[in-house]
């Protein structure tokens, strides 16, 4: 095929994709055809000339990756995959229907989507994770492409990703910004100031190329230049027009997120003439050329050696986590550690020191860190364990939310939870982490209370087929369990019991140890209590708790180093909501905490042994 | 005083501040003296030469503002305020003690702190809000200074703020980056590459000045240049050394967050010689010169006109919110609106169109938007209403968390909550918003279910002395209340009742209307139910609900368009936890939703009228 034929073919394909974008959004009577139109040439060139992939095997590990960061342009992405042969073109009319996987924004329910997008500014970080894995773990030649909108470059997460990609010299990554000038409700702040975009991208260490994004020739040249650029990622800054090719709509405000309505027929007629379907021979898709080695994981990943504590020394669960992660790393070469410059506090440093090539220092940029973790975990090759203070994981709350829509299997590890961290004060204390993480569908939330259970939580996390949150603690705790104790997801442990128990206490972490102290005090007063270590806050072990409460006169006290809302307390209450005859008391932090010694803070906020003992007496 | 004397005085002050930083962290046996040391000259010059303020009246509205974004350097900030005369220097030894407001990281419990810091990358955004208010609302000459660490420039939120400040030409804003090279666990990614910092800051539209941050002369010149720079903000890039002036520690890794221990005496002796306390005359603090007009708010802010609906047309609560905000704007000139390029969806556009000068378009940068809103709301002058889709407010979850520690009064408005938004799909649906917002201490969470109550929620929000979250909905709802209905925080409304009711249903938003439909169906079957509109999810109206449940045979059904965890359901369960004899059922979304028509989604996820009716029958 001559180069003229190539260009003409890609131009016709671009217009065909425009047609599909209009028709599918007309059918669904919602969607973003004008945002699709500006990027039609970009998608045409990428999917029908640049990218190496197999539409019949979209998750082939050696294929180039594509991430549509501007997820609202799903219609043109679906159109490209349909035209490529991934599914029948006729299915495009099912856009946004409840029984179709062609959702309003892309999700991995579709086998050609790796990550859900639609919350802006996240795609580039996912792409960084894929590119990092490609270059440093897979050591393969596949490339990663990510199309962003101009509006979403206002998101700071995008600049975290720009900084990350250049720092790690991800020359297998190519971002394309579709600078179509117009946002949802106003022009984007930089409008068509391409030189400002170029300066910013260049300053962040990328190779920047400005092109006319509606010109196939310029795009082809830019992608070639990108593939030849070494040691830095490339960003193609494509000057485009929203609604490009749509007469009367192109470059006009107030056409965001609207089907073309009665303007559609005339525009479609024009576009169809340009495509001339009868004579149109689709361009060939480049075949996969990269090689990727097969992943050979054991069916079950086991700690390389069991917990080994003599029970005399107190150990922090954050330290036990680090120990366990190092053991996991020995057992499985696909375990990856990430941290945001807190590795000497979260103890992910133990993993880093043992396996420096499988550790990614993400610096103080939690949003990008979580995005990278999600990107690394795509196509089920690697298992990402991502670390920072639990409070700062919240910085990536929206990324974790979107991770759920991606059905990611990332393991989130948050340290320094609760007022028990002490003097650093409230800004460093996670007191809402469970409230947030519990909302993630199908997640497992671990709250280990000693070193043995912490190690087993890490092992269970690695094997769980979904997202996991592990809350670790700063203070040292006594060892509660034997080294060979067996733990299961959703199975609590009764750690104190007798036949005379008058009340059940459910607790976790520091409050579990306070409960034990309280039980000793109460025992002296002739009042025996049963104490349950929840172990997992989600799922919560309803059976064990209910049985115990029924055996202790329907009395239940829940104590937690967390705000009153959404944590262990409400998890237990919800599990028992259908029960009558249970009286529940709940101790938790109820106000903004202060700096102080851990014991002082536990007392001040009413969750220490003394308050527990008093609460039990009140329940009796 | 000669300029030599000035410089010497400031150098001596810098070392005196180093001494205080060492001594106070020795006393608390925790803290970050080395991170204080690198910025000692910056703080000395700012507090004793550059800034105009009154240490005896730290919240004087005409004073220059100072924000310590690197909040872990609280010890040197406290030292500066003490030396300035805000409180006795002897109190510095109470650092991090539980009965002292000199917490590990600064909070507004101290009258010289406007905003809590300690979660990195947030201070510049708060400062942007203060500078925006100074330039555009107060129209005053006070200036805003913000010191950042180099490590935190990895946070994307910082770049959102850089972009915002230049876009709005905040030439009254001066940022200083303390480039001390070393992070917590490793060198910061850019180390001492000052030219890279300069390129980035310049590309983001700021005037960048590189200085030796340990050189008082260079700092003085840079601050002068900053004050003379028009139409753009200035960023002073100060090359410094962590632990500067601490022999054997300066520029060494592994000294983050550690008191100097047994190295302190020798270092203190050296510094004390440099200060020579006996001969040291403290530099004079520049007096306040700016003028600011007094704020004259009515004791109670009322909607300029009451709700005015004929009850025939269905209205979305997001639209009613926009209507009410416009009315509030008429009633009170201190009401400010902010949005992140969603104003035509959240309907904050109604306020923007009426009061363009009191509206801040923040573009797609929710973290900075929330920070700006918090900054604008400091010193109790303006009332910020900040808008975006509820799902995207989560992007600023950590900012909202820190806002709570700042005791901010910001009003957060999240639209497009729940699966009822329909075809756009799960990325746009907030299903965890209440779980997160409920954790904010003392917040009020409104969930209006019709236009009348939505308008009153906005009015109540404006008058509430604390943070507020209002969840608005996308679909149109029937009008439930008369235009003169009176609403109160923490007071639910019974909207359907009879003496024969066999079950209570608590709901909000779309599910309240589904409950009404279900009640009609059940009525046909001879089963009357009582229906409660919660109105506020926090505080929840325990009394009304309990009374109602007791009157309906202890049967309670809660239905919500939210995930199962942490929302209305668990709020009600927690309120009734101490009760026995109540049987609770709960309908909520339990998995990642799909795209589809709202009615289809409500059915698929089990929260429509049919599922409600079935759940009631099951409870009977």
Q: How would you describe this structure to a colleague?
A:
Chains A, B: Homodimer. Chains A, B: This is transketolase. Chains A, B: Keywords: Calcium, Magnesium, Metal-binding, Thiamine pyrophosphate, Transferase. Chains A, B: Belongs to the transketolase family. Two copies of one chain form a homodimer. Chain A is 38% helix and 15% strand. Chain A is built from 22 helices and 19 strands. In chain A, helix 5 (123-137) crosses helix 13 and helix 18 (510-524) packs across helix 22 (609-619). At the A-B interface, helix 6, helix 7, helix 11, helix 15 and helix 20 of A face helix 6, helix 7, helix 11, helix 13 and helix 15 of B.
Please name the defining characteristics of this protein.
homodimer, 620 residues, alpha/beta, Rossmann fold, 3 domains, 7-stranded mixed beta sheet, EC 2.2.1.1 (chains A, B), Transketo_C/PFOR_II (chains A, B)
Write the SSE topology.
Two copies of one chain form a homodimer.
Chain A: H1 3-28, H2 33-37, H3 40-50, E1 65-68, H4 74-84, H5 123-137, E2 144-149, H6 156-167, E3 173-179, H7 194-203, E4 207-212, H8 216-228, E5 234-239, H9 264-275, E6 315-316, H10 317-331, E7 335-339, H11 343-346, H12 349-354, E8 359-361, H13 366-376, E9 383-389, H14 390-393, H15 397-405, E10 411-415, H16 433-437, E11 444-446, H17 451-463, E12 468-471, E13 476-477, E14 493-496, E15 503-507, H18 510-524, E16 529-533, E17 536-538, H19 542-551, E18 555-563, H20 568-575, E19 583-589, H21 598-604, H22 609-619
Parallel strand pairs in A: 1-2, 2-3, 3-5, 4-5, 7-8, 7-9, 9-10, 10-12, 11-12, 15-16, 15-18, 18-19
Antiparallel strand pairs in A: 6-13, 11-17, 14-16
Helix pairs in contact in A: 1-3, 1-4, 1-9, 3-4, 3-8, 5-6, 5-13, 10-17, 13-15, 18-22
């Amino acid at each position: 095929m001559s180069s003229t034929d190539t260009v003409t073919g890609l131009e016709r394909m671009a217009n065909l994709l425009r047609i599909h974008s209009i028709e599918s959004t007309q059918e669904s009577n919602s969607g973003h055809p004008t945002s699709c139109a500006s990027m039609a040439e970009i998608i045409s060139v990428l999917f029908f000339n640049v990218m190496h992939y197999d539409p019949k095997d979209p998750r082939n590990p050696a294929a180039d990756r594509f991430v549509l960061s501007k997820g609202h342009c799903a219609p043109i992405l679906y159109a490209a995959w349909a035209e490529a042969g991934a599914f029948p073109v006729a299915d495009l009319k099912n856009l946004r229907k409840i029984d179709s996987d062609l959702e309003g924004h892309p999700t991995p329910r579709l086998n050609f989507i790796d990550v859900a997008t639609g919350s802006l500014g996240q795609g580039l970080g996912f792409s960084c994770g894929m590119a990092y894995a490609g270059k440093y773990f897979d050591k393969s030649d596949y490339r990663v492409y990510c199309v962003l909108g101009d509006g979403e470059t206002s998101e700071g997460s995008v600049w975290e990703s720009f900084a990350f990609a250049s720092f790690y010299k991800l020359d297998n990554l190519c971002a394309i910004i579709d600078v179509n000038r117009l946002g949802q409700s106003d022009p984007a702040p930089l409008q068509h100031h391409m030189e400002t975009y170029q300066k910013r991208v260049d300053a962040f260490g990328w190779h920047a190329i400005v092109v006319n994004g509606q010109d196939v020739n310029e795009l082809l040249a830019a992608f070639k230049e990108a593939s030849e650029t070494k040691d830095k990622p490339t960003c193609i800054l494509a000057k485009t027009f929203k609604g490009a090719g749509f007469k009367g709509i192109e470059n006009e405000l107030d056409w965001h997120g609207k089907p073309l309505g009665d303007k559609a027929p005339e525009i479609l007629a024009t576009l169809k003439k340009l495509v001339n379907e009868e004579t149109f021979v689709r361009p060939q898709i480049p075949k996969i050329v990269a090689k990727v080695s097969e992943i050979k994981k054991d069916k079950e990943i086991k700690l390389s050696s069991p917990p080994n504590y003599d029970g005399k020394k107190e150990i922090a669960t954050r330290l036990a986590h680090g120990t366990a992660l190092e053991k996991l790393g020995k057992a499985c070469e696909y375990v990856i550690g990430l941290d945001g410059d807190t590795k000497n506090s979260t103890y992910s440093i133990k993993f880093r020191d043992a396996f420096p090539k499988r550790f990614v220092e993400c610096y103080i940029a939690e949003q990008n860190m979580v995005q990278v973790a999600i990107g690394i975990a795509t196509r089920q090759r690697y298992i990402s364990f991502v670390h920072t203070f639990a409070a700062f994981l919240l910085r990536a709350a929206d990324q974790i939310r979107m991770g759920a829509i991606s059905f990611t299997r990332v393991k989130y590890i948050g340290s320094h939870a609760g007022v028990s961290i002490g003097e650093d004060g409230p800004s460093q204390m996670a007191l809402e982490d469970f409230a947030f993480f519990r909302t993630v569908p199908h997640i497992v939330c671990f709250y280990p209370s000693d070193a043995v259970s912490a190690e087993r939580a890490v092992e269970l996390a690695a094997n769980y087929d979904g997202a996991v949150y592990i809350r670790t603690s700063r203070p040292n705790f006594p060892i509660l369990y034997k080294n060979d104790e067996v733990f299961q997801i959703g199975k609590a442990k009764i750690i104190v019991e007798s036949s005379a128990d008058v009340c059940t206490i459910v607790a976790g972490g520091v409050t579990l140890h306070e409960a034990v102290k309280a039980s000793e005090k109460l025992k002296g007063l002739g009042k025996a209590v049963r104490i349950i270590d929840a172990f997992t806050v989600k799922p919560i072990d309803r059976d064990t708790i209910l049985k115990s409460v029924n055996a202790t006169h329907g009395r239940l006290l829940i104590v937690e180093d967390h705000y009153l809302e959404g944590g262990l307390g409400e998890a237990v209450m919800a599990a028992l909501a259908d029960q009558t005859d249970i009286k529940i008391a709940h101790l938790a932090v109820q106000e903004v905490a202060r700096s102080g010694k851990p014991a002082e803070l536990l007392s001040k906020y009413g969750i220490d042994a003394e308050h527990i003992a008093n609460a039990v007496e009140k329940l009796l």
